Amino acid sequence: MKKILVVASLLLVVSSALVFGQAQAETGKKSYVFAANCAWPPLEFVDENGDIVGFEIDLVNEIAKINNVDISIVNVAWEGIFAGLANGAYDAVASGVSVTEERKAIMDFSTPILVVTQAILAPVSNTSLSNTASLNNKTVGVQLGTTGHIFLDDFDKSRNDFSVNIKAYDEVGFAIEDMLNGNLDAVVTDSVIASDYVMTNENYASKLKITGSASDLGEPEPIAIAALKGNTEVMNLVNNGLKTMEENGTMDALKKKWGII
Fold this sequence. Notes:
The chain starts with a helix and ends with a helix. It has nine helices and 14 strands. It has two domains: about 1-115 and about 220-255, D-Maltodextrin-Binding Protein, domain 2, CATH 3.40.190.10; about 120-215, D-Maltodextrin-Binding Protein, domain 2. Helix content is about 40%, strand content about 25%.
């Protein structure tokens, strides 16, 4: 079933690219396709009306406006998002992408748009999970393939005095639901995502809290928009938009709009 869903997603991306190729011919504007895994509020998510919204979505739309181009955004599962970029299914990924040395070997990154750390999210009744060491012998949820997942797994394998049962989910929201159902002790996720669930999500604000920081899972991570290595056209487009937004105050306004500190 998973393979069928992946194929369907790629077909959707290809068809979107064809539609926007025609739009380019009609409007005279150059067209691009950006991918996002829309399960990361407040960065990108699907709202109650079924619309794709969020901080990075607004950011991409502003980049398009500043550069007088068309940019379509497609919702792609995180598990295959970088494979789609490598295969040319879209031009860039704007989806809370952490800049890592491993990724820099195959991708180019824009000017960072945020800096995040790994946060420990737990039910309000839990007061003991304050740091990575406190996760010892606990069951911890992560989103599959994220830096939180990778770092926690590496930390677990590298230490003889630490053991954690990691459960990986397709979306961080599934991990949080499973934690509230009593199946996890905590969830490790990006600090900006954790803050959104605690401070602004009315379904979770009274049930969850950020109990600590998993600071030894790595240094603070810059978040940026990714493109294939050597794609200077897209990088120039993105960086020009980001620079303009920093200078004219739009970046600060969008952070305030989406509650990003």
